[in-house]
Amino acid sequence: MRICLQPMSRQCVFALVLSSSALLGMTSPLLAESIAPAMASAAEAQLMAAPGADETVPSGESIAPPAATDQTNPSTAAPDNNGATVDPARPNIDPNAPLPEILYDLSKLPDPVRKMHDALVAACKSGDIEKLRPLLSSGNMATQLTFGEMDEDPIKFLHDQAGDQGGQEILAIMEEILDAGYVHLDAGKPQELYVWPYFFAIPLDKLNAPQRVELFRIITAGDYEDMKSVGAYVFYRLGITPQGKWAFFLAGD
Question: Following DSSP, what letter does each residue of the chain receive, concatenated?
């Protein structure tokens, strides 16, 4: 089933993806909707972190930041070769590295990963976005839903990404993604993950014709042309840890 959105709806959903790249000088309209809430949340977090007029801070002591709202998942973040932290939910494709194996057989998944995958699919098929709530991770391993900071209810956040009133559009996108092939990344490392769809880890210019057919079940040809400017698939993707924790579901770069 291809997700075929009406023009305005497609722009609203896919606007969550590429307009963040406008920060890099690009003009794609894709992430304007998602960046605004993140910027507002960041501003609010700064206000929360500042001491009030009646508060004093002992000399030499720093003020603790507000409750963790940074959506980078520390359970999967890892340093790159220069020691900088790499967010595994962001495309990090080495064009010269061997391509990862593309997998379709769900029986090859570790049991905890298979259980989470199937539970997410069942929640999507129910049409009730609240069915995702018990599957979300929290605390230091909170499921990452945005690259910005988020202090609102995660289900409300997902609901608001959809173009319909019930949130079924975002469920349809998630189900379609989980029906695609997947990749097993960083096996044996702390940041090991199973990620859907596999396009996330494959350079767009290395997709063959049958693979582009699979890609166009999720995005349009116009979306594909926009993504070429970024150099990677930046629509929704979903990651699950080997322990069966739902690591992330988001779009953008």
Answer: ------HHHHHHHHTTTSGGGGGGT----TTHHHHHHHHHHHHHHHHHHSPPTT----TT--PPPSSP-B-S-TTT-EE-TTS-EE-TTS----TTSPPPPPB--GGGS-HHHHHHHHHHHHHHHHT-GGGGGGG---GGGPPB--SSB--S-HHHHHHHHSSSSSSHHHHHHHHHHHTS-BEEESTTSTT-EEEESGGGGS-GGG--HHHHHHHTTTS-HHHHHHHHTTTS--S-EEEE-TTS-EEEEE---
Alpha-carbon separation of residue 8 from 127, 163, 164, 176 (angstroms): 22, 9, 11, 20
Cα distance between residue 225 and residue 166, in whole Å:
30
Q: How many residues does the chain have?
A: 253
- Whether residue 153 is predicted with pLDDT greater than 70 in this model: the reply is yes
The pLDDT score that the predictor gives to residue 46 is 41
**CA dist., res. 69 & res. 40, Å (int):** 13
User: Per residue in 39-83, pLDDT tens?
Assistant: 444 444 443 443 343 443 343 433 333 344 445 554 445 554 444
Q: What is the mean pLDDT of residues 88-116?
A: 92
CB hemisphere CA count around 225 (13 angstroms): 3
Q: Which one, of 174, 173, 245, 200, lies nearest residue 103 by Cα?
A: 200
**pLDDT above 60 (res 111):** yes
Q: Is-contact 10 220, C-beta < 8 A?
A: yes
Instruction: Determine contact, residues 239/76, Cβ cutoff 8 Å.
Output: yes
